[in-house]
Amino acid sequence: MRKTILSAFIALACAATAMAADNVKATVHADKAGAKINREIYGQFSEHLGTCIYGGLWVGEGSQIPNINGYRKDVFEALKVLKVPVLRWPGGCFADDYHWMDGIGPKNQRPSLRNNNWGGTIEDNSFGTHEFLNLCEMLGCEPYISGNVGSGTVKEMAQWVEYMTSDGDTPMARLRRQNGREKAWHVKYFGIGNEAWGCGGNMTPEYYSDEFRKFNTYLRDYTGNKLYRIGSGASDYDYKWTEVLMDRIGNRMQGVSLHYYTCTGWGGPKGSATKFDNDQYYWALGKCLEIEEVIKKHKAIMDKKDPEGRVGLLVDEWGTWWDEEPGTISGHLYQQNALRDAFVAALSLNVFHKYTERVKMANIAQVVNVLQSMILTDQEGTGHMVLTPTYHVFEMYTPFQEATYLPLDLESEIIQVSKAYFKEKEGARDAGYRPCPMLSASAAKTTDGSIVLAVTNVSLDKAQTIDFALEGFAAKTFSGRILTSENVADFNDFQHPNVVAPAEFKDAKLKKDVLTVKIPAKSIVVLNIK
Ligand code: AHR
Description:
By secondary structure, the chain is an alpha/beta fold. The chain has 11 helices and 28 strands. It starts with 8 loop residues before the first strand and ends with a strand. The site of alpha-L-arabinofuranose has 10 residues, from loops.
């Protein structure tokens, strides 16, 4: 039976001890394997927003920056390491303003337009369908296309699917061949709109459901390709949206999305990525962890209406959303990425693992230069690139992809923000009691039979020793890596690219089937146990 988390409250003001007194007891139930962790949980999201596409993924064939057919070489190689399973494109809000025919054919004939969602930047359409789908093939990942419901037509969307996936002698397949691509691409994931409740058309769930039915009717499965149709789902706590969609189109969609962002203030400043106090730190982590409650509630609705678990819940936008970095272009959502962001990544991934039976995909927002990105490329054109702390979490967590989830019991103290901060938040849109457990962990049995165990200690000042009983597993050896830094606000930049980087971790002992791990404050440890 899963133990509940201890509710030993620590007032921050008096949480000054450097080391918790007793070892915490934990159990990894290797004998009670759960579901396979969908590798799509490690999905990425790329939008025509700021420098995510232009300057991030794509620099063009003629660029001084080393590239492979126009794709930034260093970024491409770094993404290869992450084994990206799925990449979402072209938005986001941009998707419902995007007309795919603008992005095909000779580049010098493609129209330049204003990106109305993101800062009015000129979009020259040099990165379009071919550039995106070829990139997915090179990365070996599934493409996830977001279709335009908000300002597009049924015909336009139907023709896009035909253009990408028809291998027959059909008009759109002929056009594709004329543009240099003989074979149809494989496209599995197709989103019918994005944020239909907001930038995707400001619809009601009832109206959107009817739109979904209409658009969906004309999206054909061409020979050899079967679309996984995704409904534009809820934002955060909008359970009614999920309820209506499940009632009206639950039998027509294979997945429904959910968007959930972490920041320290909605509707005003969202908080700095690198300058925050202890209260803001713990509160943000509590807010991030609240995603578990949110998933549980959406899942409960889905479980009732779809007990067979046919429809997947896809968290296709998640991550931190901080204030834009001072001096950067407004509307480009360029933010730094600190060790705190790495915690948000690790804690969220742990939650997704736990609900993998329903959570079939998650796409962190976004892959390069936008929001909680994996990679930052310089904005000055010097050709530098930096891997963020979040990148390192995704890299350290790669063994979880397709591994089998193992239930785990772990007790943790709960850290709470100061009363003064709680009071300050009162009445704000994002007010709420957000407990933050000091420890969290996730375990899985990998495809080679070993156990991968990730442990996070978010405490600012307390190390903790944990005894992990490995039930049903005869452990012989282990190895590990740690991600930590002196300060939770530490980050990597072009001058100092390795401030937050993984290092070897040795502070563990194996005795019989108990692995005792001493996990320092402010750290993420990932162990491989054989
Ligand atoms: O990821 C940035 C934006 O956040 C997306 O375009 C939109 O879908 C969401 O509101």
